[in-house]
Design a protein that fits this description.
The structure is a single chain. With 256 residues, the protein is α/β, with parallel strands linked by helices. It contains 7 helices and 12 strands. It has helices at residues 71-78, 113-125, 146-155, 176-182, 184-188, 206-212, 229-241, and strands at residues 5-11, 17-18, 23-24, 37-40, 48-55, 59-65, 87-90, 103-109, 131-137, 160-166, 198-201, 221-226. It has a 5-stranded antiparallel β-sheet with strand order 1-6-5-4-7, with helices on both faces. A 5-stranded parallel β-sheet has the order 11-10-9-8-12, with helices on both faces. α2 links the parallel β8 (103-109) and β9 (131-137). It starts with a strand and ends in a 15-residue tail after the last helix.
């Protein structure tokens, strides 16, 4: 069965104050940027990292999957409107360049879409000429945010390309136009995506990435990978092996 996905909105305190063991700072002192994560303090468990799926002046969103018997996701799922939770930002010093890019490639694994999608949207809004978003998942049951992705395609036609890389599901056998006309019921169940996209079967490899990411000028392309540390290390190594040296061509490079 498909795991439920929820977006929680957390208000940032307006004023600083001190609890028994924690210092709470107001939103004027909170600095979070694209690529940062927030640590949610789960009682009787370790702090859990989540990407910020939307950031506003006085609040932020966290989008999560609820796993069976999940300690962190189960606790967050049980929160009610008005409940409070301790959290702290994991800010990384990065170089931010608002100059529109000519080409951005984003590779996300699983729930990494919660960071990858906002970055793709931000780059397109800044004027990037082409953004290619590759979402590596086991099956389409593991994907979500179809409406958001479809809206982005409609807002930036010809500039946003979405690719699903499925490791445990065969791509739809029907032509795209026929698929869009006949698969509404299956899409509701997470089987297919109703919108312009491409499907691939397999796992990431240098050969597959080389076919997916084809910038007009390789030196001008910038990339972002989102997943576990091990996944990102492997993916960055593959990008380097096909002529996109990382971290030199990282979209959000860290300041050394």
């Amino acid at each position: 069965d498909r795991l439920p996905v929820y977006t929680l909105t957390f208000a940032i305190p307006e004023f600083s104050y001190q609890t028994d063991d924690k210092a709470v700072v107001p939103h004027s002192q909170v600095r979070l940027d694209r690529g940062d994560i927030v640590k949610m303090v789960i009682p009787n468990y370790k702090p859990k990292s989540y990407s910020i799926s939307e950031l506003r002046e006085t609040e932020f969103d966290v989008t999560m999957k609820v796993y069976p018997n999940g300690r962190a996701s189960g606790f967050l799922d049980r929160l009610k409107v008005g409940d409070t939770i301790h959290s702290f930002g994991k800010h990384v010093s990065r170089t931010y360049n608002n100059t529109p890019k000519s080409y951005v490639g984003i590779l996300v694994f699983g729930v990494g879409i919660t960071e990858g999608f906002p970055v793709a949207k931000a780059e397109l809004e800044k004027g990037c000429r082409q953004v290619v978003l590759v979402w590596a998942s086991r099956t389409m049951h593991d994907t979500f945010w179809h409406d958001k992705l479809r809206t982005l395609s409609e807002t930036f036609p010809g500039k946003f390309q979405l690719i699903f890389l499925l490791s445990r599901q065969e791509p739809p056998p029907l032509p795209k136009l026929q698929l869009q006309q006949t698969q509404d019921k299956e899409e509701e169940q997470g089987n297919f995506y109703k919108g312009p996209c491409r499907y691939w079967k397999g796992r990431i490899s240098p050969e597959i990435l080389q076919q997916m990411f084809r910038p007009p000028i390789k030196e001008e392309a910038r990339f972002l990978t989102v997943g576990t540390k091990e996944m990102m290390k492997i993916a960055d190594g593959m990008l380097t092996s096909i002529g996109f040296p990382m971290p030199e061509q990282h979209l959000l490079p860290k300041i050394k």
